[in-house]
């Protein structure tokens, strides 16, 4: 697999979605391009194959698309991180502040074990609020977050500081919206 694949032209940029002033980085155009999607998955597989992971935690909904092939390829359990009220079993949850209002992430309690080394996967990290709440859920359960993987990062929104000391790895970053 080409290790220098240029993802940027594949990612569709949609201005003013879902509201005015937001430039939305749309990864559905990666899914429509098997070479680009394959590049993303192979980059993840080679980075994490020997990382000593015990589980992958993927964030609703687009994080599932990248977390699932990775978990399958590495032979690891896949934990789903969902918005409130979607998971049918007993859950643990954490509410975090957004610019306006708040949001809640949930995981199945029985998926969280003590002493595990977990990789968090999402498609895009903006402020890092969702990932921070996910990392807190995992750490509260007595496990540790090895790293956060995201296809796209928007570091100017401050996720590095918000997530420190948990490291973040992205395939590409954008400097401003
Ligand atoms: P945050 O909690 O601020 O890091 O937001 C993370 C979630 O919002 C991710 O799961 C992204 O899918 C979505 N998101 C936030 N901003 C954007 C954007 N500019 N383009 C695409 N998705 C975004």
Explained architecture:
By secondary structure, the chain is an alpha/beta fold. It has a domain of 122 residues: 3-Layer(aba) Sandwich (Rossmann fold), CATH 3.40.50. 28% of the residues lie in helices and 33% in strands. The chain contains five helices and nine strands; from the N terminus they run E-E-H-H-E-H-E-E-E-E-H-E-H-E. Strand 3, helix 3 and strand 4 form a beta-alpha-beta unit. Helix 2 crosses helix 3. The mean pLDDT is 96. The structure holds adenosine monophosphate (AMP). Adenosine monophosphate binds next to strand 2, strand 7 and helix 4.
Indicate the topology.
Elements (H helix, E strand, L loop, with lengths): L11 E4 L7 E4 L1 H4 L2 H15 L6 E5 L2 H13 L3 E6 L7 E7 L4 E7 L8 E9 L3 H12 L3 E10 L5 H5 L4 E6 L4
Helix pairs in contact: 2-3
The structure holds adenosine monophosphate.
List keywords for this structure.
33% strand, two-stranded antiparallel ribbon, 177 residues, 9 strands, binds adenosine monophosphate, Rossmann fold, alpha/beta, 28% helix, seven-stranded mixed β-sheet
Write a compact overview of the structure shown:
It is built from 5 helices and 9 strands, in the order ββααβαββββαβαβ. The chain is of the alpha/beta class and 177 residues long.
